[in-house]
Specification:
The structure is a homodimer of 159-residue chains. Chain A has 159 residues and is mostly helical. In chain A, 66% of the residues lie in helices and 8% in strands. In chain A, a hairpin with a 7-residue loop joins strand 2 and strand 3. In chain A, helix 1 crosses helix 5 (105-125) and helix 2 (41-52) crosses helix 5 (105-125). Chains A and B meet through helix 1, helix 5, helix 6 and helix 7 of A and helix 1, helix 5, helix 6 and helix 7 of B. Chain B binds a DNA duplex (30 and 30 nucleotides) through helix 4.
Chain lengths: 159, 159
DNA sequence: GTGATAAACTTGAGTGCGCAACCACTGTAG
DNA sequence: CTACAGTGGTTGCGCACTCAAGTTTATCAC
């Protein structure tokens, strides 16, 4: 603990790089996705999660947790996706409180068509810039962060 | 989707981790800073940049570039900081278009008091979780990203 | 049963920010 | 001196999101 401000400096530096680089990156990819397919990144991620989920449906709470959004954020997000016809609601017969978000056929098609360019965009940013090993170590390093934040919420991020 | 290589999967995976982990992290630190000192992360970073700048002042454009914000974002940001008395405006006598943001004494004190807990928070997240070497390699890896965005060939250079 | 507590979800108000459009000033060209 | 392109900066509008408060359904205590 009493050690060096160097560690602090390194941490701050890494953090600032992360913050700025990531902010610009997200904005960039988001703008691209938005202009090409009228989807935000979270729209896209939501569709992706649903597509991978069993039966193409998820509880809104689980979606919120996976997307790192509050329940109200998910409500508005799905609101837009419903209006666009990409998802629809379904209720649970064993629990009247929960509502499922269900991926529609239209939604799946939309995801497929958006995937091509979005993945290509990510590829362009990441794969061209890092080697395979670097990518893995980056993923590993960054993978440690969420645990810190949400606490013990390692509930079923299996997938 | 296409056949695809594992590389794409790896890129996507790294990206998703980055996205989610970082989003949660930013929200977390932001909330902390906000509740403890009534500053957003960008408020803090702006004060920090000004404190490091020569004469404690910067042109708004340069601030925008450093913070990865649009000019309008900087206007609102500084609007708040001015209202709080942490910065004030100054005009340039050699160029009537530019306005400087100048850190006030109050602002410098605010930054100092906020720094303690904020740096501690970052320390808690980063330095405890990574070794010195990992931190450096993380910083290096992430440092390559911004170049991609603002960079040479990609796109949307105009605007 | 009745009541208290909790979970899933929605709604209203407010915030941070980008985009597009705009004004103000500068420097160069005719 | 006028014209005009380029840059610095602000404003109107809209979007995505959070927080706080409310509604409905489930569950547990008695």
């Amino acid at each position: 603990m009493s050690t060096s401000t160097d560690d602090q400096t390194a941490a701050l530096d890494a953090w600032v790089r992360l913050l700025r680089g990531h902010a610009a990156l997200v904005r960039d990819l988001n703008a691209e996705l938005l202009h090409d397919h009228a989807l935000t990144i979270n729209d896209y991620e939501a569709l992706l999660l649903l597509a991978h989920a069993d039966g193409g449906q998820m509880r809104r709470t689980d979606l919120a947790q996976s997307l790192q959004l509050t329940p109200s954020g998910v409500t508005r997000l799905l609101d837009g996706l419903e209006r666009a016809g990409y998802v629809c609601k379904a209720s649970c017969d064993s629990d009247g409180r929960v509502t499922y978000a269900v991926l529609t056929e239209t939604g799946r098609e939309k995801l497929d068509s958006a995937s091509a360019s979005h993945v290509a965009g990510i590829e362009a940013l990441f794969a061209q810039r890092y080697t395979r090993e670097e990518l893995e170590s980056l993923a590993e390093l960054l993978g440690r962060l969420p645990d810190a934040v949400g606490g013990p919420s390692c509930r079923a991020p299996e997938r």
